[in-house]
Structures are given as C-alpha cells and as structure tokens.
Specification:
The complex is a heterodimer of chains A (58) and B (257). Chain A has 58 residues and is an all-alpha fold. In chain A, 88% of the residues lie in helices and 0% in strands. Chain A contains 2 helices and no strands. Chain A is rod-shaped and about 60 Å long. Chain B has 257 residues and is mainly alpha-helical. The chains are: A mainly alpha (58), B mainly alpha (257). The interface between A and B is large, with 37 and 50 residues.
Chain lengths: 58, 257
C-alpha cells in the first residue's frame, strides 16, 4: 500500500465518524496517553529507588 | 520495538508540529466556558491534550533510557527496565493506532494480535487492517487468521493456495510475503503452496538470507520473524519502525485536522 493510498484510507475513515464519535475516540487516546505517562513516571521512580537500594547493599 | 536498537515511539517533527498547531487552536477556542463547551471545542481541546501527551511520552522514555545507562545500574535491573519500557511502548503504539477510528494501522503482527485481543474482534473486515506492504504485516495477518481460525476477509490471497485455515485473499507483498507465510507455515505445520510466483521458494529463501545478512551488517540481528507468537526479529522491527513512523505522521495529520 502506498503512502497516498494509506492517507486516502485514513481520510475515508475519518469521514465515516461523526464528531461525537471522534470526540469519544480522542478521549480514549488522551486517557491512554495519560495512563501511559503515569506508568512511565512510576517506572522511573521505582527504578531509581531500586538502584539506590542495590548500591547501598553492596 | 526492540530495545537493542533503542527504538521508541518518537513522532516526527512534522507530526509534532501538527499537534502543536492543533493545541494552539484548541487554546484559542477554549476561551468560552467549559460548561458550554461545544463538541468542536472539545475535539480541539482533546487534540491539544494528545499533543502534550505525546511530547511528555517522548520525554518520559528518554528519561528512562538515560536511567538505563546509569553507571550504578545493575545488569538485572537494566534488563528489567528495558523490558518494561519495551512492553509499555508497544502497548502505547498499538493502542494509539487501534483507537484511530477503530482501525488498526499496524506496523506488524504484534500490533495485530494485540488489536484483536483488545477489541475482541474475530473477523477482520476488508480495509480494516492497513500496513506498509512489506509482507510482514500481511503474512502475519494471513497466518494469524489461519492459526486462530479467523475468517480472513481482508486482503485476498491471490491463488496462494493455502490449503488449511485461510479462506481466500490476496497478499500484496509478493515474494516477501510468500517467504514469511511459507516459513511460518512450515513451523506451525500448515500445508501451503504457491505456483504463481515468479521466484521459486528456494530463491526466496536465498533472497531473504541476503537481506538478513545486510541487516546484520547494519548491526541488526537477521532471521525470520516468528509471526504466530508475536515476536519478530530486530531486523524487521527496524524495517517496520520506518513504516510506523510514516504511519504516525499520517495519523498525526488526521488528528490535527
């Protein structure tokens, strides 16, 4: 599938949804990103603590 | 997204620009009361939130990747961290794309499997699965359908002659797709044949071996993907990553409209 075909397909898809449906989908994407970002932040914090603990026990 | 290659869901500058533009528009249009927010305003606001979320996503991933390089990081911790970020990254991109109008624009079979699991979809309608026609997506799609007994109503496999599983369809991807289908079919015990391709199976194997060697030369591991289990080699992760970047750019344009 070429880039142009893909773009056309995506536009067709967009056109098949009402604004209300698009808003719902965008809400889902937005919430998913928020959850993912929180998960990444938690992972960062948790790992930092684990590094500290691992090094303090050496 | 194999961490061996430091892959991450990084949006192109153009895509981020589109999102930023959408965000500015959203800001301008949100001067009215939130309680009276129209659907149009809500949509623009959401596009702005998504723009911010994606920017934050890149930052968070960069922070974790930097942490992985910390000199105090123990090998087991590093391995676990990279594995975690890989899982999260994959889930993000697959969900992100699966949310686009309910259509999966996939960069590979991993995304397809997650998409099917997440949506509970058992029938793939024509046109609902798009992808860079590199054969990986299509072959994986075809095989997944055959193995799981899913009705394969999407791409037609032109005279492909898979005797079990796949009902019909055309795989556009030529020898590349054929290679994956045949190799994976061997692995899972499916009986396949194709009499129409110009390139013989042995020749396809040889071509694929050369391709793998080239990828190895670039620092990637070669070898065929294990499509039915959802694993693919970093060589094809890199290949699909490029396709995925293009797809993301298109998706970003769509969202920014």
């Amino acid at each position: 599938m070429t880039k142009d075909e893909l773009l056309k397909k995506l536009k067709e898809i967009d056109g098949t949804y009402s604004q209300e449906e698009r808003v719902k989908l965008l809400e889902e994407i937005s919430n998913m990103l928020k959850d993912a970002n929180q998960e990444l932040k938690d992972l960062y914090t948790k790992t930092k603590i684990e590094i500290s603990l691992a090094n303090s026990s050496r | 997204m194999g961490m061996e290659n430091q892959q991450k869901p990084q949006f192109t500058e153009a895509a981020q620009g589109e999102f930023a533009q959408a965000h500015n528009l959203a800001e301008q249009n949100l001067s009215s009361s939130e309680s009276n927010e129209s659907l149009g305003q809500r949509e623009k606001k959401l596009r702005g939130e998504i723009a911010e979320g994606i920017g934050e996503l890149d930052t968070n991933i960069e922070n974790i990747e930097a942490l992985a390089e910390d000199e105090h990081m123990t090998p087991p911790l590093r391995e676990r961290l990279l594995s975690s970020i890989d899982t999260i990254s994959n889930r993000i991109q697959n969900k992100f794309l699966a949310h686009l109008g309910g259509t999966a624009v996939l960069s590979g079979i991993v995304g397809l499997q997650e998409y099917l699991v997440n949506t509970g979809q058992s029938v793939i309608e024509e046109g609902s699965i798009l992808g860079d026609a590199n054969g990986v997506v299509l072959a994986g799609l075809a095989l997944y359908a055959s193995i799981k007994g899913i009705q394969f109503a999407g791409y037609k496999i032109k005279e492909f002659g898979i005797k079990k599983g796949i009902k019909k369809g055309t795989v556009e991807g030529g020898a590349d797709a054929a290679y994956y289908i045949e190799e994976e079919a061997d692995r899972v015990g499916l009986d396949v044949h194709n009499d129409d391709l110009d390139v013989s199976r042995d020749e396809r194997r040889e071509l694929k071996k050369e391709e793998s060697d080239i990828f190895r030369g670039e620092g990637f591991r070669g070898g065929p993907a294990s499509l039915s289990t959802g694993y693919w080699s970093p060589a094809y992760t890199e290949k699909a990553s490029r396709a995925f970047d293009r797809t993301k750019a298109e998706a970003s344009k769509l969202l920014a409209q």
